Amino acid sequence: MSAALWLVLAVVALGAIVLAPLPTLAASFRPQRPSAGNLPWLSSRRGQIVNSQGETVILRGFNDDALLQSGRAPLPPPLTFQDALLMRAQGFDVVRIPVSWSLLEPRPGRFSHSYLRKVEEMVDLCARAGLYTVLDLHTEDFGVAFGGSGAPSWLTLPALPDWHLPLVPSAWQRHLSPAVNADLAFFWLYPNWQRLYWQAWRVLARPLAGDSAVAGFDLYNEPHPLPVPPGIFAPRVLFPFYATGIREIARVDPNHLFIIEGDLFGDLPTRVDPLRAPDLVFSTHLYAGSLIGGSFNGRSAPLRSELTQGISEAAQIPAAYWTGELGIDHQLPGATSWALTEIALSDQYRTGWAWWQWDDPAGWGVRAGHGPVDRAWLDTLSQPYVQAAPGRLLSMTYSTSRRVLTARFAEVSSPAMADVAWPSSLPPPHILGDCGQLAGTYPGGVRVRISRADCTVTLAA
Predict the structure, then answer these.
(1) Average pLDDT in the 412-426 region?
(2) Distance in angstroms (rounded) separating the CA atoms of residues 353 and 305
(3) I need a surface site. Which of 50, 103, 401, 408 has the fewest CB within 10 A?
(4) Closest CA to 312 of 282, 352, 286
């Protein structure tokens, strides 16, 4: 297919999308959850992720790409059980696992049972350590044929140039490649490749349908609209794509959170249209000051704007909000200040996140390949927070200098328990105030009995 012919087809397809009536953005089904295993089932309600006891749950943890194929590179080192136990001991409760479509379906219609077992084994490893998992069928620069991740190499358009420009970093080579962008455009403009994608998702989800340790499915990583204009992409392409995918996955697994992402177009907002589906979560990735918008200069305003934009978009859907990725190369000047600012904002807005990432040789992780864990950086990211809250969690702040966590609860059917992440690297806490009492411990946290409907609890190291 020549570039000129491809351009003509893209224009025709785009015109058809613009002129077609807007589809119904809804997926209707009923969860069929069996008894929970190691961890309670999660769902979403009134804009919050909740567990089976109705408590608000805040998921914080790491991405780990041990199962992710990128181009021809070998797989990264596996996540070990000791790694998972350390995450849990430091107060974290979730791992987002990027999964490779290319390894799941190495040949058309032939799915790898050995790779599926690796996914299930990693989910089980995390569950035994007390960690939820989020599965992300990860796409970056469309697929492995161009050095990215996602689509198998057999799924690509022929005869389009894959430019390699001098003095341009390899990641940007892929972003600018006509072949990469043509394949992405074909994926978004024509439904046949999307059908293959949702088929792969059904194969991935089916064996996990009864596993309560799986928090949810992140349906597509960082979609971007080119060549479709952003104002058309979300309502005409992206949200109908999600509605179709949720219906397809729910045929084999109606039991988990469905996590959708906004369009990745610089740092611009997503045009959000209401999408009605059970257990919906909206996710954005927070890289202001680390990857986009210039280097961090100590001002929290750009970081706050990026986070509150995502929270606002989630409310418009409506859906719960969760940050699927945030991170910075901690070798950069100001990285610690950036991380502390992001975590303080997530406390203020009571949001969860998955740090990018646990293991990364380029400086983004707390471990670099087979090397030791960077305990100083891990301690920076490991801070107390309310992990599961009865009633309504009205506010939450943590002072890193004083090592004091303050949380305000309301509408508690007292007495009730709150789970508070408390990293093992901190001294055991004591409680200030008269409406909260320490009632036990668990790996990486303490349980607090709340004795009044409205209560402010302060825990100090």
Answers:
(1) 95
(2) 16
(3) 401
(4) 282
Length of the chain: 461
| pLDDT higher than 90, residue 431 | yes
Q: How far apart are CA 269 and CA 364, in angstroms?
A: 26
The domain in which residue 243 lies consists of 3-382
d(CA 262, CA 383): 28
pLDDT > 70: percent of the chain: 91
Sheet holding 385-389, edge to edge: 42-45, 48-51, 56-57, 385-389, 416-421, 445-450, 436-442
The values of phi and psi at residue 274, to 5°, are -55, 135
Considering the domain architecture, whether residues 127 and 213 belong to the same structural domain is answered as: yes
- Looking only at the bridges linking them, the beta strands covering 404-410 and 392-399 are antiparallel
pLDDT at position 292, please?
A: 82
The two tokens of residue 394 are 């009205």
- Which residues lie below 8 Å from residue 67, measured CB to CB, with a gap of 6+? 75, 97, 98, 99, 100, 103, 115, 118, 119, 122
List Cβ neighbours of 159 (8 Å cut-off, separation of 6 or more): 1, 2
Q: Are residues 360 and 316 in the same domain?
A: yes
Residue range 62-73: mean pLDDT, rounded: 95
Give, in order, the Cα–Cα distances in Å from 328 to each of 231, 311, 325: 29, 21, 10
pTM of the predicted protein model: 0.94
The one-character DSSP state at 276 is B
Res 270: pLDDT? 75
| 340's tokens | 């502390």
Say whether both 360 and 389 belong to one domain: no
Structure-token pair, residue 166: 């001098």
DSSP string across 88-157 = HHTT--EEEEEE-HHHH-SBTTB--HHHHHHHHHHHHHHHHTT-EEEEEE--BSSBGGGTSBSB-TTS--
Q: Taking residues 81-108, what's their average pLDDT? A: 98
